[in-house]
Amino acid sequence: MDLNQIPKLKHLNANNFFLLAGPCSIEGEDMSFKIAERIVEITNKLKIPFIFKGSFKKANRSRIDSYTGIGDQKALKILSKISEEFNVPTVTDIHEVNDAQMAAEYVDVLQIPAFLVRQTDLVVAAAKTGKAINLKKGQFMSPESMKHAVTKVIDSGNFKAMITDRGSMFGYQDLIVDFRGIPTMQQFAPTVLDVTHSLQQPNQSSGVTGGRPDMIETIARAGIVNKVDGLFIETHFSPKDAKSDGANMLDLEHLEGLLTRLVEIRKTINKF
């Protein structure tokens, strides 16, 4: 995939990693715009290609009473308004075949969740929209097996695929990032490291996923050192109040410092 195929993606000549970032879920227009505005400010300053991320619906929940969203059309319209207001591309995840065409009318990149990346009908439906497709590696899948997910996109007539690693299951309640997978998956498509989801601690007895946000910089640095193409970071100005995945999210006030240090590491790596 050529990143130039994603509309509104800027700073592609800066020789930087690209960034998918935003809240886990679109909780409302004000919060979404507040987060988007700050990330745009930071990424323009650091010349980082940026795609705003927000889920229009949360379907993979542990409990039936978990927060799922503010309404599909309402959330998708907010994503579209953010793209227009800040002139940035947007990405959201889809969960059902019927979501593909609906979401494609509002966003630039369709994301296939890790739990669903083997669902052929879903991947093909997303690919046939012509949008760029972000395939999240299943926690249960090897890096090598992601070749087949990419092939499904290509065989559907779409050559705009990327892969995102979000860790692999390590026991019932932990994940681990195997950095050997980055060069493997880069043979198939540009590869992104999902820093915050890799630090989740799933399957808690409470039904609410835990996390290790204190390790965000450790994982992100390792990804940049190992020449990952992009980073995926969920961020919120008040993670403890976020309606989804707050336990592993980065506080927005720490984003500029983190990205500044990562850009410096990338500059060093580019010399080798």
UniProtKB/TrEMBL annotation:
Any Pfam family: DAHP_synth_1
Cellular localization per UniProt: Cytoplasm
Keywords in alphabetical order: Cytoplasm, Transferase
Main location: cytoplasm
Record protein name field: 3-deoxy-8-phosphooctulonate synthase
UniProt feature coiled coil, ranges: none
GO CC terms of this entry: cytoplasm
